[in-house]
Amino acid sequence: MNRSPVKNLDPKRCPICGQDNACGMEAAKSQGLAEPEHCWCMTASFAPELFANLPESLMGKACICAPCARGDSA
């Protein structure tokens, strides 16, 4: 799995690896639906190290995917 920050931000993609982030909020938004009350990321734990290499410009712009949040690697 690529672990360097992506260059072109897509809110449906993880800013760390570039894979689909399964963001419930973004999925609803793209379908013209009301945002759900909950998304998987709202209860996930994210290690501070995940954010260490992300540029400030990417912070809060796209969800980190579950595999990156768990520290999985390919």
Number of domains as seen in the coordinates? 1
Q: Strand count, sense and closure of the main sheet?
A: none
Task: Note the total helix count.
Answer: 3
Number of strands: 0
Q: Helicity, in percent? A: 10-25%
Oligomer: single chain
Distance between the termini: 5 Å
The parts where pLDDT drops under 50 for at least 5 residues are none
Overall pLDDT score: 81
User: What order do the SSEs take from the amino end to the carboxyl end, as H and E?
Assistant: HHH
- Rg from C-alpha positions? 12 Å
Q: Structural class of the secondary elements?
A: mainly alpha
Q: How much strand? A: under 5%
Shape: globular
SSE arrangement:
Blueprint: H1 24-30, H2 49-52, H3 66-70
Describe this structure in words.
The chain has 74 residues and is mainly α. It is globular and about 35 Å long. It has one domain (1-74). The protein has helices at residues 24-30, 49-52, 66-70. It is built from three helices and no strands.
Summed up:
The protein is mainly alpha-helical. The chain has helices at 24-30, 49-52, 66-70.
